[in-house]
Amino acid sequence: MPRKSSNTGETGEVAASHAIGTVARRTGIKVPTIRYYESIGLLREPVRTEAGRRVYDDAAVSRLKFIRHARELGFEIEQIRRLLELAGEPQGSCAEIDKIAKAHLADIDSRIARLKALRVEMQHMISECAHGKVCECRILEVLSNHSYCQHDKH
Question: Are both 73 and 130 inside the same structural domain?
C-alpha cells in the first residue's frame, strides 16, 4: 500500500500502517465510529494514500483501544478527551485523572442506586398483579398513575 511521506516516524522510518477496516477489526470499533471520532477531534486525521484511503499507525490503534475501553467503562466523550490530553503529559500529576475517575464512580453508584429502586418498584408492581383480566391489571394501573408507586423518582 503506497504511503505519503508524512507517515514516517521521528527516525525517518515508515511507521506501521493499517487500513481503516483492519483498524476496525483490531479495535472492535466500527468504521463509521472511527470516522466520527476523527470528526470530533478525538482521533487525529490519518494520513491518506495517493488513492485517498485512510492509513493509521500503531499509535492511532492504541488510542482507539483506549477510547473503546473507556467507553465500555462508561466514560463520556469529553471525559475521554481530557484523559487523553492528560495521558499526553506523562510527567504531569495524575490528580485530575483521579478526580475524573472518582466522579465517574460516583455517577455509577448513583445509577446503581436508581436501578435498585427501579427493581424494587418493578417487583412490587409485578407481585400485586393478580394475573386476571387486562381491565384489572395492577401493572397497567401503576404505569397509568405514578402515585401508586412506592418511590417518587426512578
Answer: no
